[in-house]
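User: I'm new to structure prediction. If I give you an amino acid sequence, what do you actually give back? Let's try with this one:
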Amino acid sequence: MAKNRRARHEYHILQTWEAGLVLHGTEVKSLRDGKATLADAYAAMKGGELWLFNMHVSPYEAANRFNHDPLRPRKLLMHRGELRRLVGEVEQKGLTLVPLDVHFSGGLAKVDLALVRGKKLHDKRDTLRERAVARDMERGFKE
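Assistant: Good question. You get back a string of structure tokens that encode the predicted 3D arrangement of the chain. For your 143 residues, that looks like this:
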């Protein structure tokens, strides 16, 4: 439904998890239409629960007054053991939780969360250089 392509460029991805996403009525229809943006989204602990902030889900056009707030915080559902381990790593090592992907699995909305560390400018250049070399090698093999 929505992908965060910028996250793979901006961060080193250390580990990933899949979490459930709590949505309100019209958000589901809007998400199924592909009207979500994860560009500036991040996950954080608040009150002992995991929340997703700054994920923009556009209002559903046919819902008129029953629409939702596009930028409201959304609760994420994970097992308690996973949450404890995740919180420990985020607080101790200074890492961040970033959503990579939002999709439906068996009719339920799921978010792929990644534990990330920010890349420096030289790391981004190295990634682009490696990608260009791999592309050139593929072209060479085809010929």
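You can read the tokens as a compact description of the fold. Here is one thing that stands out. The mean pLDDT is 87.
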